[in-house]
Amino acid sequence: MQHAVGAPLPPDPSGWTPGAGRPPVPPVPPTPQGGHPASQPPAQPHAGPPAPPPGPSIPPPVPQAPGAAAPYSPPHAPGWGPGGVPVHPGQPGSPPRDVTGQVPLPPVPVPAAPPAEPGTGTATLAVLLIGPAGAGKTTVARHWAQSRRVPTAHISLDDVREWVCSGFADPQSGWNEHSEAQYRLARRTCGFAARNFLANGISCILDDAVFPDRPVVGLGGWKRHVGPGLLPVVLLPGLEIVLERNAERSGNRRLSDEEVASIHGRMAGWYGSGLPIIDNSTYDVETTARVLDEVLARSIASPPAW
Fold first, then answer.
1. HSE on the CB side for 73, CA within 13 Å?
2. Close Cβ partners of 196 (under 8 Å, ≥ 6 residues apart)
3. Bridge partner list, 126
4. Could you say which of 81, 120, 131, 285 would form a disulfide bridge with 235 (CB–CB 3.0 to 4.6 Å)?
5. In this structure, what DSSP letter does residue 69 have?
6. Are 267 and 211 in contact, with CB atoms under 8 Å apart?
7. pTM of model > 0.90
8. What is the rounded CA–CA span in Å between residue 88 and residue 246?
9. 226 and 192 in contact (C-beta within 8 Å)?
10. Do 202 and 153 meet the contact criterion of CB atoms below 8 Å apart?
C-alpha cells in the first residue's frame, strides 16, 4: 500500500498484512503460586539509578525516509512539553515565565476631570422672569436664551398678546374685561408652548410683569399652565433706572411715568416672598444674564418655595 507521506513501511515479521485484521496475541503463560511466571526467576534487587516516576509514556520517534515531510506535532500548552510532559522553569527547553507575549507598558496618565460648568450648564428647565416695565426682562431673557449651549426658547407674553391685531385690547387704554381675557388667553398659549418645548428637550424662558398681590392671575396661573418645575426669578432695578429705560421705549410698550412708578411699587412686594431677586441697576445685559444663570443654578439645587 502506498502512503501519502513517507516511505512504505517494512513487512511485519509476524506475517500480518494490512486489511487482514490484527495478528493473534500469544497466550500468557500461567503464573505459579509464588506470583512470578514459571519461566522466569524472581527479580532480585540491584543497585542502580532509581526508576523514573510514573507518567505518560512517550513513543519513540518513527524514522523517516530522506526527503519525507516531518510528522505533525500538535501545539502544547505553556509549561508542558511534547507528549504532555510537564516542563518546569529553568529546565532545558522550558519556556520563559511570561509566555503570553505581552509587553508591560507604563501606566497611562489619566487627565483630571474637567471642572463642572458654572451655572445651569446643559440642564433642561423652564424659567419665568418677572419684572416691571423697563426692567429689561425681555432683553435679558432673549440674551440668556441665545447664550446657552443647549436649545433654549424665549417666550414673551407681550409678543403673544400682540398676536391679536383687530380688536387688540391695549392695557394703556385701561385694564378692563377685554384686556383681562386677552391676557389670560396669551398666558395659556405661552404655557402650552412652554410645555411643548420641554417635552421635546428644549428649555424655555418666559417673561411677564407678574404682581405679587394678584396670585391667582399671576404666579399661580403660570404654575398651573407650565408646571411645578417652573423657576421664577424677579428682575427689579431701582425706580430711576426703570423710568430711564421706559423713556427709551416706543409704541404701546411705553408707559407713563405714573404707571411705571405704580407698577414698580407693587413689584416691591416680592421682597420677603422667598423668590430670588436680581437688582440689575448697575449691570449690563450680558452681566445680568450671567447673574441670572448663577441664580438659576442655585434654584435647581434648592428650589424656592412658592
1. 11
2. none
3. 204
4. 131
5. P
6. yes
7. no
8. 94
9. no
10. yes
**Residue 151 DSSP symbol:** -
| More confident position, 1 or 196 | 196
Measured between alpha carbons, how far is residue 290 from residues 177, 230, 236 in Å? Answer: 39, 19, 16
Question: Whole-angstrom Cα distance, residue 213 to residue 82?
Answer: 95
- β pairing state of 152-156 and 203-208: parallel
Helix locations, 109-214, DSSP H:
137-147, 157-161, 177-199
Number of H helices, E strands in the chain: 7, 5
CA neighbor of 204 nearest in space, from 159, 163, 144: 144
Grid cell, residue 71, equals 510528522
Which pLDDT tens digit goes with each residue over 148-176? 999 999 999 989 999 999 998 887 777 78
- Higher pLDDT, residue 15 or 159: 159
Q: Domain coordinates of the chain in residue numbers?
A: 126-301
With residue 224 as reference, give the H or E element that holds it: helix 219-226
Grid cell in block for residue 146 = 441665545
CB-based contact 212:134 (threshold 8 Å): no
Q: At CB < 8 A and 24+ separation, what contacts does 280-289 make?
A: 280/135, 280/136, 280/140, 280/235, 280/237, 280/241, 281/237, 281/238, 281/241, 285/136, 285/139, 285/140, 285/143, 286/143, 286/147, 288/136, 288/140, 288/235, 289/140, 289/143, 289/144, 289/147
Kindly state the DSSP code that residue 256 receives in the 8-state scheme.
Answer: -
Residue 30's alpha-carbon distances to 35, 40, 41, 83, 159, in angstroms, are 10, 12, 14, 35, 118
Report d(CA 75, CA 81) in Å as an integer: 9
- CA-to-CA distance for 161 and 176, rounded, in angstroms? 15
Report the C-alpha gap between 240 and 79 in whole angstroms. 90
Fold of 126-301: Rossmann fold (3.40.50)
User: CA–CA separation, 1 vs 169, rounded Å?
Assistant: 114
Cell of 217: 392671575
Cα–Cα dist 291/140, whole Å = 11
In angstroms, how far is the first alpha carbon of the chain from the final one? 102
Confidence (pLDDT) at 89:
55
Which one-letter DSSP state was computed for residue 40?
S
